Amino acid sequence: MLKIDRATYDGALGGPDPNKPYLKDLQAGRVKPADVGGCSPLR
Fold first, then answer.
1. Residues near 40 by beta carbon (within 8 Å), at least 6 away in sequence
2. Cβ distance 16 to 10 under 8 Å?
3. Which residues make Cβ contacts (< 8 Å) with residue 35, sequence separation at least 6?
4. pTM to 2 decimals?
5. What is the pLDDT of residues 20-38, one digit of tens each?
6. d(CA 25, CA 15)
7. Phi-psi group of 7: left, alpha or beta (phi > 0 → left; psi -120 to 50 → alpha; rest → beta)
8. What is the distance of C-alpha 38 from the center of its chain?
9. DSSP letter for each residue of 1-43
10. Cα 24 from Cα 11, distance rounded (Å)
11. Is 40 left (phi over 0), alpha (psi -120 to 50) or beta?
12. What is the Cα–Cα distance from 13 to 1, expressed in whole angstroms?
């Protein structure tokens, strides 16, 4: 596994991608439904 920062990732893509969430937003609980994916009941 390679560790890179967000600026390197965005630079490789040619700019920031608004569809990719930032890790700090995920950790703070600020997620969009599309970032989580489908949910299903446990039973």
1. none
2. yes
3. 21, 26
4. 0.48
5. 888 888 889 888 877 776 7
6. 19
7. alpha
8. 15
9. -----HHHHHHHHTS--TTSPPHHHHHTT---HHHH-------
10. 19
11. beta
12. 19
